[in-house]
Design goal:
- Keywords: Methyltransferase, S-adenosyl-L-methionine, Transferase.
- This protein is of the alpha/beta class.
- The protein has a single domain, classed as 3-Layer(aba) Sandwich (Rossmann fold), CATH 3.40.50.
- 34% of the residues lie in helices and 26% in strands.
- It contains 7 helices and 9 strands, in the order αααβαβαββαβββαββ.
- The strands form 2 sheets. It has a 7-stranded mixed beta sheet, sandwiched between helices. Strands 6-7 form a two-stranded antiparallel sheet.
- The radius of gyration is 16 Å and the shape is globular.
- It starts with a helix and ends in a 9-residue tail after the last strand.
């Protein structure tokens, strides 16, 4: 890992470790995003279920989970068990109080996504929200390839991310994060071995923010049942 990448990761870890450990901190100081975000994500999952894109709801993985905002308000309402992974130990520790129950919570991993390896063939959905921008293009490609290995048969990867306009990638020095155009995000997913099965745009957010896209992806080469 080169020094530039290390600096980005350190900047991101420092930024998030200093944020308030609540919904306000997780949403960049705009807590009004929480309600429409939860509604948008929940409705997206319902569409995936209705269209038989997601057919099992045993296990999900929340990537960049923080205190567990998405885990608690979106994924736990649909899946029997939800695992969480986040780079910042303090946020993962706070999640126990925020979520308020262990019923439905699986494993909690404290690790950056650039090195994290999901358990093999476990997850019906891998949910990646507002965290892909903290990875370089190469690291994101590699992470998505590892996520494919973590999918159960007919599993789905969901990326929910802010996207830039005009085909330009924008760097945010405050948190060491990139905002990519949708075209580049889809190109990275394709290079990782994924194809789009459904996508939509988040609605109900204030004007002036980046557009937020929800993208459901399946492996080009489907995961097969393990006979062992």
């Amino acid at each position: 890992m080169d020094s530039t990448t290390v600096n980005w990761l350190l900047k991101a870890e420092t930024f998030w470790s200093r944020c308030t450990q609540d919904e306000d901190g997780m949403l960049g100081g705009i807590p009004s995003l929480h309600g429409p975000d939860v509604v948008g994500s929940t409705n997206f999952l319902k569409i995936l279920k209705k269209n038989l894109i997601v057919t099992k709801f045993d296990n999900a993985l929340d990537c960049g989970a923080g205190i567990g905002r998405v885990t608690k308000h979106v994924l736990m309402n649909s899946f029997d068990s939800v695992d969480m992974v986040d780079l910042v130990d303090e946020l993962v520790a706070t999640s126990a109080d925020y979520i308020g129950t262990d019923d439905g919570i699986g494993e909690k991993f404290v690790e950056g996504l650039q090195t994290f390896e999901p358990p093999i063939q476990k997850y019906d959905v891998v949910w990646i929200q507002w965290v892909s921008g903290q990875l370089t293009d190469q690291d994101l490609t590699s992470f998505l390839q590892r996520c494919i290995k973590g999918l159960a048969p007919n599993g789905t990867i969901v990326i929910k991310e802010s996207v830039s306009a005009g085909g330009k990638t924008l760097y945010h020095d405050s948190d060491g994060c990139w905002t990519r155009p949708e075209s580049l995000l889809l190109e990275i997913a394709q290079n990782a071995g994924l194809h789009v099965v459904h996508k939509t745009v988040q609605t109900g957010f204030p004007k002036g923010l980046f557009a937020v896209k929800m993208i459901a992806l399946k492996p080009v080469h489907p995961v097969e049942e393990d006979d062992d």
